[in-house]
Each structure stands twice: as C-alpha cells, then as structure tokens.
Design a protein that fits this description.
The complex is a heterodimer.
Chain A (H helix, E strand, L loop, with lengths): L2 H14 L7 H30 L5 H9 L3 H14 L7 H9 L5 H13 L2 H11 L1 H24 L8 H12 L15 H36 L4 H6 L6 H9 L6 H13 L4 H13 L2 H7 L5 H29 L4
Chain B lengths: L1 E6 L4 H17 L3 E6 L2 H6 L7 E4 L2 E5 L5 H9 L1
Parallel strand pairs in B: 1-2
Antiparallel strand pairs in B: 1-3, 3-4
Helix pairs in contact in B: 1-3
The chains are: A mainly alpha, B alpha+beta.
C-alpha cells in the first residue's frame, strides 16, 4: 500500500521534473518527496486515531495507576506510561513534582521521563514506515530498557537524597503516609464528539510542532542518501570497532533534536553502512540527552543528581550500541 | 478584582495563555491582575501536573493546555 508514495515520487521527480533517476540530485529528491509525503500522510491518520483512543488518559490517572503497583511493576509502568502518555517537555517539572509529592520513587518518575522523549506515537509510526517492524520492536524494547534500567540504578544509588530540599520533603511526607487507598481519579467518559475535538486539537498541535523537524530530518537523510556512496561508513570507519559507539554517543550530545528529526536520518545512516547499534546509540543520545531539559530539571535537583543521571544515560546508550551491534546479525534479516 | 495566576515553567504555551486571558478580560471589561507563576514550589502546591494551568483567586480552575475562549470567559465570569 505504501508503494503509492514511491510512484508519486517517481512521477513528480522523474516524469514531471525531468530528473535523471541515476543522478545524485534526482535520487536525493526522490527520497525526499517519497519520505515526506509518506510520513505526513501516515502521521495525520495515525495521530488522529491514537488521540481518539487515548483522549481520556490524563496524568492524574497515570499517577494513580503507578502508585498502586509494587516497586518492580512500577518501573515497567513508569516507562510504559512515559511512552504512551501525551506530554509536553515543558511539563517535566510539574510532572516530576506531582509524582514525587505523591510518594512515587524517584527511579520510577525518571523511568517515565527517560522513556517519554524516546518513544512516542510519531517516532513509532516513522520507524515502522521507514525501517520496518523488526526495527521498530527493537527500538521500543531498547527505549523501555533504557528507562527501566536507568530508573532502577538511580533508586539503588539512593539518588533521592540529591533532590532539592523542598522536593525531598514533599517526597518524604508522602512516603511516610501512604495514600494507597485513596479513590481513583474520576474518569470522565467522553462522548464521541469530545474525543473527536481532542483528537483534532492534538493533530493540529503535533503537526504544527513537528513539521519542520520532518522536513529538516528527511532533507538531511535525502542528502546522505543521494550524495554519500553506499557503504561509505563501513569503508571509512571500519565496520563496528568498539570505539565507534562512544564516538556516536558523544557526537549526538550537542545535537538537540527530537525523535522526528533523527529517524529519517537513521535510515540513510544504516544503508550507508553505519552499524545498527551505533546508529541507535547516536539517535538515543540526540533525542534523550538534551541540555535544555537538563537545565530545567536543575530547578528540582542538585547538580550531583543531574550529573549522575547524565552519566547513567551515556552508559546506557553505549550499552545499547554495543549490544545491538553484537546481536544485529540475528535480529535483522532485512538490514 | 480577580487575581489570576498562570502556572507553568515558562514555555510558550504559558505566555500565550496569559496574553489571551489579559486580552479577553480587557474586551469584557473585567478587572483582573494576571501574573505568570514559574516557581515550581507554588506549582506543586496547587498539585498541577500538566501546564499551562490557571488559578483564580488562589483556586485551581484549569490545567493541561491553553484554555479556549469559552473556558476563559467562564473563568472570568465565575
């Protein structure tokens, strides 16, 4: 069914535009038109449908579910809800304090915040359409693992002692008086019309926020696709020496992008011979470890905690890179 | 006079919310004082998790996004 976008691109670029399919520019343009039209079409449909389904999911209910679970289920739930809950990064601080003052352990809250930028419906739709379902599943598993592992490690270090005073107090107050038996927040049953309105607003808001990232991301991906020879990375960097992974993670750090901008580049990087694990490590580092967000968290954390979180993330990304590079031959028959 | 606080850690949506409330209040001739609150302690005190949120005279009245015109009018007339 997605072939229609390949035809559309061929028709526009080769037939109407008169570009030579074998030229660098022609092949870049074809890639750009095919991927942008495909991504936008899929996004519009899928964001709307997903928003319809999750219209009644709000943070209060998410917090309630997480509170009811024991510690171990909590990490999984934290990361899981981080993946599916609509959530804007400017709400990080209120969310953090809302969870903490409800007595939810720091590690679980951080599992939510780690996973949230890595996995969301836009990322999943784009990965699925560009790189296939195997890759998407691996990506989701890794995103969850990074969140759960990072959260558990923070708790095992006793990291809550590095919270700012007021946040630490709020946590201790709540932890001292468990509110496990409080009633569940009321779930408003929405009419179809309300769901439609919510979904329409979500669609406008998300597309307005991400369209330029898609253009930039696909543009860069298209340039790589057309102008960098196949196998360039494996010819020039060697295929997967161990140090490639830390270099990719460090290279991704100063690049501040969201998943939407990076995923179209991943496709090109992989076909140009960058090992899958290295590519994923680069992507995660670009998406999940961004300085503006860290500076925001400074309002509730001491530097020591911020630095710990940062180091944990870097180590996690490198592990992702190495492990996936090792497993790649078994995981991806198609790549 | 109504004391309106727009709660949020300072993203664009919070600014827009404050501007819209000010503009609509002016249109309706409601006497208001709109302040933007970015202090996380105060936001925590209101138990808000999704911003922007709006408090009227110290009572939380809205949270989770930019309120639409109807909602703002309701807040101002309440």
């Amino acid at each position: 069914m997605l072939d229609i976008f390949t035809w559309l691109a061929s028709w526009l670029v080769y037939d109407l535009g008169g570009f030579d399919p074998d030229s660098k520019l022609g092949s870049s343009l074809h890639f750009f038109v095919e991927d942008t039209s495909k991504i936008f079409a899929l996004l519009v449909v899928m964001i709307y449908v997903i928003a319809l389904l999750r219209a009644s999911l709000n943070l209060e209910r998410v917090r309630y579910y997480i509170q009811q679970k024991n510690l171990f289920a909590g990490y999984g739930l934290g990361a899981g809800f981080g993946a599916i809950t609509p959530f804007c990064s400017c709400s990080s601080i209120p969310l953090f304090l809302g969870f903490t003052s409800a007595g939810i352990p720091l590690g679980i809250t951080m599992a939510f915040l780690f996973t949230s930028p890595i996995i969301n419906e836009v990322a999943v739709i784009m990965l699925w359409s560009l790189l296939g379902w195997e890759f998407t599943l691996v990506y989701i598993t890794i995103g969850m693992a990074v969140g759960i592992g990072g959260g558990m490690l923070l708790d095992s270090l006793g990291a809550e002692r590095w919270l700012k005073d007021f946040a630490a107090k709020a946590y201790q107050n709540a932890a001292g008086s468990p509110q496990v038996n409080q009633p569940a927040p009321v779930s408003h049953s929405l009419t179809l019309k309300q769901r439609h309105q919510f979904a329409r607003n979500e669609l406008y808001e998300i597309v307005a926020r991400i369209w330029k990232w898609i253009i930039i991301g696909v543009g860069l991906g298209a340039a790589l696709h057309g102008f960098v020879p196949d196998g360039w990375f494996s010819d020039n960097l060697g295929s997967g020496q161990w140090w490639n992974v830390p270099v990719a993670v460090l290279a991704g750090l100063p690049l501040y992008s969201n998943a939407t901008g990076v995923i179209p580049i991943m496709e090109s990087l992989i076909t140009k011979g960058l090992p899958v694990g290295t590519t994923l490590a680069f992507c995660m580092s670009t998406v999940a470890a961004s300085f503006p967000e860290f500076i925001m968290l400074k309002q509730v954390m001491l530097w020591r905690l911020l630095a710990t979180i940062f180091i944990i993330l870097l180590i996690n990304f490198m592990l992702v890179g190495w492990i996936i590079n090792l497993l790649a031959p078994w995981l991806f028959s198609s790549l | 006079m109504k004391k309106i606080e727009v709660l949020g850690t300072g993203c664009k949506k919070c600014t827009v919310t404050a501007e819209q409330i000010t503009a609509i209040a002016k249109e309706l001739g409601t006497d208001v004082e709109v302040t933007k609150v970015t202090d996380p302690q105060i936001i925590m005190h209101y138990q808000v998790m999704s911003t922007p949120a709006v408090a009227v005279n110290g009572q939380l009245a809205h949270s989770g996004g930019i309120p639409d015109r109807e909602k703002i009018e309701a807040l101002l007339n309440a």
